[in-house]
Amino acid sequence: MYSEKVMDHFMNPRNQGEITDADGVGEVGNPTCGDIMRIFLKISNDVITDVKFQTFGCGAAIASSSMATELIKGKTLKEAWDMSNKAVVEALEGLPPAKVHCSVLAEEGIHKAINDYRIKNGLEPWKEEGGHHHEHEEAGDEE
Amino acid sequence: MTPGQAKIKQITYEGNGHDAICSSCPWTNTVMTIMASQKMVYMDHSATTATDPDVVKAMLPWFSLMYGNPSSLYKIALESKAAIDDARKKVASALGAEPEEIYFTSGGTESDNWALVGVAFANRKKGDHIITSAIEHHAVLHICKYLEKQGFKVTYLPVDKDGRIQIDDLRAAITDRTILVSVMFANNEIGTIQPVKEIGSVCRERGVLFHTDAVQAVGNLSIDVAEMKIDLLSLSAHKFYGPKGVGALYIRKGVRVDSYMHGGAQERRKRAGTENVPGIVGLGVAIEKAAQNIDNNVSRIRSLRDKLLDKILDEIPNTRLNGDRNDRLPGNINISFQFIEGESLLLLLDNAGIAASTGSACSSGSLEPSHVLLATGLPAEIAHGSLRLTLGVENTDEDVSYVFDEIKKAVERLRVMSPLYADYIKARSCNV
Hints:
The structure holds two protein chains of two kinds. Chain A is α+β, with helices and mostly antiparallel strands. Chain A is built from six helices and three strands. Chain A has a single domain, classed as Sufe protein. Chain: A (Alpha-Beta Complex). In chain A, strand 2 and strand 3 form a beta hairpin. Chain B is globular. In chain B, helix 10 links the parallel strand 5 and strand 6. Chain B is α/β, with parallel strands linked by helices. Chain B is 45% helix and 12% strand. Chain B starts with a helix and ends with a helix.
């Protein structure tokens, strides 16, 4: 069901863990839907110098977190912001249709972490373009 | 001895039943490679079981040697007919029924669908109300949804935290429009056994038909349809070491049921379609063997199950048993591991060669976790972290130790990754 790449990132997740003095933290998803992703960013001169994740979720959610964090490491904030969930899916050599939302979750987690950093530093948060919305969030907002 | 049995005796196969079929099967190499490459522990017997070699052996002659259509009139056809009748006796005897009360089907789903639709339409002049439970298999729940679309009214009885319906709820739900109660014998996910005998008594008292989906019960629990006042009962061969694609519906004599499959006059005009002779023969042998060995198998499987269950609950913190501790299927374990999600747990176990199952939504592609776990009142996030292990005849002590070790490792590994666990640990250290 999963590609070899997904299995590799699930079995050997990159960047798993916590940055205790993170400059930006983003959390998306909710436990009711079965997935939560938390992204920690260390930022210096507008560049992501370190990134870690914690994920509660399925194999695809863990692999997406691992791959997405790999893709933004060393990138500028703008580059990281522009990384779409499609890039994560491609890098993972595909995800089953029912699991594509896991890659959306990773993109949104990164966006949230970036905006957390921007707000903390007195900057205007960036706006989501196209506004694709993680389907789980609505259920979470009710709680 | 029936003519069918006499013929089987003349045919011998070398080795066990598997050699005869597997040597020419193109899949054999693939399967053998998988099995040889790593340890494999199968703990998903509620999903399906390996067909017993004795069953395979008994089925073989009915494919290419005695392939006659049981509806035909020549000798090999009569042999097929005799073999079906023989299997029918075996099924009847295992259930405490009469042979003419047994109808062969394509499996559990067809039996459930037929029972519900057949009773509903045959009795609609009498009433239009059906009662079932919230935790039935989809083969019952989805046909109930269909019947609702056809104008029938369905009550879905709630269950308690262990997954059991309350007899008082059932009594209160029955009206003078009620024609059928369908409650499963034992649940496929959490293993909880329903108070079948009491349900049967209430239904008989109130003049309402009682159907039970006994797909998980046959071979694991003793069943007597007369004593338990069961009017219709579904079973499926592949759950008790028989072949896939064959099952039966018991219909008590005198119960009005419309046909579901329409066509030829097979199964005494009740179920059309050329009989699956090898499958039916296999079902007969499997159910006979299951009934003969039930005490030994069940006590052995239950003690292995208890060992594994207790070890997990004792040695892995933040775990919860789903379903009743005592009134449950002998091989069933259903445990929720807090802070982790079931599909990722299954993947790690699969990587260790362990076959198991989960009630998490993420394994099915839907957003909702198991309707059974939710009906017992379990919060969705705990339902997502559920693992079902169902043990069977080939499991050993060694399997139990191996599976426990792998579960412990996998749970620890996923918890370390989980933000929920991180929060839990932080909250705990603050409280100390």
